């Protein structure tokens, strides 16, 4: 199967395209460089051309034409993913969904939206329409698209209340187009959603999304400081378990993270302060203050509704989730990170075990989330990178201690997940992408069902470094 890129490009020349080589390069990249392992492997990857379809009919035409000419298609939202998800490993066509940004319908408790809508704009639209907000969003909400979140994200701001993105009820419906000789338009709900959500666009293009909404609040951003990390972690957990206090975010940053990496916060903390970042609903502030006053170790150092800080630190969620890593990387390019799940009921115990094992080599950054209704932690610890071998060893040691790792130093779905095939995604890919042209190289079980997961997968079809 040899792609005929020139023929596909010619046939699609009436559709909006980016011709500038610098634009093609930038639209072939995402935040893969967070990982030193991915940076070394993916830096050269580039599409042959970029199309910006304006309608579902144009999406179908792109898929049909590329299918006819055996050209790979990698779909792109805003390119803020961290694992090379939106990078065209085999070249070919990048389909940028920027023109699919319409908020179509807003109803009590739900919204219907096109995938290229920036989450911040979606949230603004639902607030203005009927005082509702997006329940869950990545910390990149100001730049990322809702389609990229559904296809590439996992949870974030709101997960303290609503759980992970793929938990039942957090996505209502998806409209998906297949890549076949005659592309089909399908609608998925309930059980079927797992076929394409968090599938990196490997088995269908999402063209419409129905998401749940919640009442909108003018969230109060808070920073609470502690001398002791275990006390801070316990506080964040207990607060999230106070069901009457409405939260959207609870993050824990081990000392000296806030002092070393959080500009505008630095002057208000010491090197030994562990910080808790929170978003609290205004009507919950009384309950929150009462709860916090009962903890002698807790010091409220910032609240966005009343403070004398000379410089606004910005939204507290832009300190959390993967923004913590971004802030640290700005100061120290040798820092990288892991994604750890500390599951209930051993979450607090496991975190302490990891801290005792690694000390300052692995600094704890925790995000409180609900899993099956139980409060636990997603960890995005900052790791002081020395070599690939040591990083792999740190991952193994976490697993040996009983932590679940979602490895951010891998570009495939399986390695970034549970190291096994997602049978539903694979089965749907067989049906929806028979030539394997959608975002190739991201689903190992499509390429090599017997892969042993004993080393990083090296996609054989990857473009060669020139
Ligand atoms: P892209 O990066 O463009 O795409 C992501 C994946 O979705 C790709 O595989 C792409 O091919 C696929 N895709 C995009 N559009 C479609 C479509 N229409 N149909 C099918 N497939 C499609 N992630 C979280 O989950 N939570 C966080 O809190 C979070 N915080 C982050 C913080 C920082 C600083 C950074 C750099 C990243 C963070 N991320 C987080 C990762 C990423 O920002 C989010 O997952 C974001 O929602 C991705 O959206 P995007 O538009 O940038 O998608």
Give your account of this protein's structure.
This protein is α+β, with helices and mostly antiparallel strands and 466 residues long. The chain contains 16 helices and 21 strands. It folds into three domains: 5-98 and 424-447, Uridine Diphospho-n-acetylenolpyruvylglucosamine Reductase, domain 2; 103-216, Uridine Diphospho-n-acetylenolpyruvylglucosamine Reductase, domain 3; 220-402, FAD-linked oxidases, C-terminal domain (Vanillyl-alcohol Oxidase, Chain A, domain 3, 3-Layer(aba) Sandwich), CATH 3.40.462.10. Strand 8 (173-177) and strand 9 (185-189) form a beta hairpin. The longest helix is centred in the C-terminal third of the chain and has 14 residues, at 388-401. The strands form four sheets. The chain has an eight-stranded antiparallel β-sheet. Strands 5, 6, 7, 8, 9 and 10 form a six-stranded antiparallel β-sheet that branches.
Which compounds are bound in this model?
flavin-adenine dinucleotide
Total beta strand runs: 21
Low-confidence spans: none
What is the SS-derived class? alpha+beta
Measure the end-to-end span. Answer: 22 Å
**Shape type:** globular
- The spatial strand order of the largest sheet comes to 14-11-13-12-18-19-16-21
Helix share bin? 25-40%
Question: What's the CATH topology label of the largest domain?
Answer: Vanillyl-alcohol Oxidase, Chain A, domain 3
Tally the structural domains: 3
Helix count from the secondary structure assignment: 16
Indicate the radius of gyration in whole angstroms. Answer: 22 Å
CATH architecture of the largest domain: 3-Layer(aba) Sandwich
**Overall residue-averaged pLDDT value:** 97
Roughly what fraction of the amino acids lie in strands?
A: 15-25%
**Class of the largest domain, according to the CATH hierarchy?**
Alpha Beta
CATH superfamily of the largest domain: FAD-linked oxidases, C-terminal domain
Largest sheet: 8 strands, antiparallel
